[in-house]
Amino acid sequence: MLAYQSNIRANYLSNTSSSTIRARVDVQFFHYIVKIGIGTFKSKPPYKEYYLEMDTGSGLVWIQCDGCTKCFKQTPKPFPKENSSSFHPILDENKPLLYECTYQDGDSTNGMLARETFYLRTKTGGLAKMENIEFGCGLHNVMKYGDYKSNKIAGIMGLGWDDISLVKQLGPQTKGKFSYCLPVVSSGKTPSTYLRFGDDIVHNKNSKSTPLYRRKKKSHYYVELQGISLDKTRLNIGPDVFAFKSNNRSGCMIDTGNPYSRIIAPAFDILKLELEKYFSRLKGLKKIKGDLGLELCYERSKAEGFKNLPDITFHLQGSQADFVLKAESAFEVVSRFRLIGFREYFCLAMIRDKEMSIIGAHQQTNHRIIHDTKNKQLVFYPEDCSKNP
């Protein structure tokens, strides 16, 4: 994916231990974003603040830079690299080292690799200063963020397996661990939570775990999905349906950069059919064509929210590794007033995929998710993320 060989240098922190580093997580248009400080300027504070999308499905950390030849709209303006005294392009034979990165949805960025000073918050509310962080300075960027009015996403924070990802660059103090708790996106104000690293992560006695895999030296985190249940009934889907095949895009990833989960077609068809049977037994429902790009949607005249909607469980590898999706993580519910009166709509918040499965951000909500890259484990347990400090 990246046209360079990464050469990670030691990073330094001033006045703090990196094990206390955290970044505040907010939401923009179903994308979970984190705020960082970057650069060194003659101003107070001495850095510029930007929001980056938190992406466990890629490795590169990058930000749109001033001077971009293809730019997407953002607030504030692109990073003014020329004015930062700590900005240093990475050179190869006296020429800037370039990168290219293309994402699964067709978005892309390319530009120059550089080193810069980054700032994150600490557990006590102070600042952690991290020098010589390697990142991409985006100069030709095609991103769908720019289609949104008042877009404030300026780039991506890659948290994948690669040495260039932020979790790897932050060094041994993080112990190779990061954690998040994603709140359900609501029509009101979605509460903020924190992306945490190292000793800032709290384990719970009820936590479950499943192995994390890396495939073909890619950035993505893979898990082994072995089956799906509707409420407590296991569906007739064999584990081989989800298996990783060495010759193509396959298996099951866990990825915060995908808003909705993608389920491989044979399994999706069975899940959809069983849901249709389930909802056929309920009164007052009318099957409709959804406008969220989702396949299975219903209309009802009463405001019921997530009541009467079933749990869906992803059975992951391990004796106690059931990832249970409560209704608010499995479905989307939308209310609208029309000429005929109040109507509520709900849809299965998952998408059919021809080749593979992905556990997306919406399905990860209201769980504490811990990526332990050193021990190659995904640790998780239910948590009310609206109350997460």
Can you tell me about this structure?
Helix content is 7%, strand content 41%. By secondary structure, it is mainly β. It has 2 domains: 13-199, Beta Barrel (Cathepsin D, subunit A, domain 1), CATH 2.40.70.10; 208-387, Cathepsin D, subunit A, domain 1 (Beta Barrel), CATH 2.40.70.10. It has a 15-stranded mixed β-sheet that branches. The chain has a 4-stranded antiparallel β-sheet with strand order 18-17-23-24. It has a 4-stranded antiparallel β-sheet with strand order 21-22-26-25. Strand 23 (312-316) and strand 24 (322-325) form a beta hairpin. The protein starts with 12 loop residues before the first strand and ends in a 7-residue tail after the last strand. The relative contact order is 0.16. Mean pLDDT is 89; it is low at 1-19.
At the first level of CATH, what is the class of the largest domain?
Mainly Beta
Number of helices in the DSSP assignment: 4
The largest sheet, given as strand count, sense and whether it forms a barrel, is: 15 strands, mixed
The CATH topology label of the largest domain is Cathepsin D, subunit A, domain 1
- Report the C-alpha radius of gyration, rounded: 22 Å
> What is the global morphology?
globular
- Alpha-beta classification: mainly beta
CATH architecture field of the largest domain: Beta Barrel
What's the CATH H-level superfamily name of the largest domain? Acid Proteases
Mean pLDDT score, rounded? Answer: 89
Helix percentage range: under 10%
Domains (count): 2
Overall strand count:
30
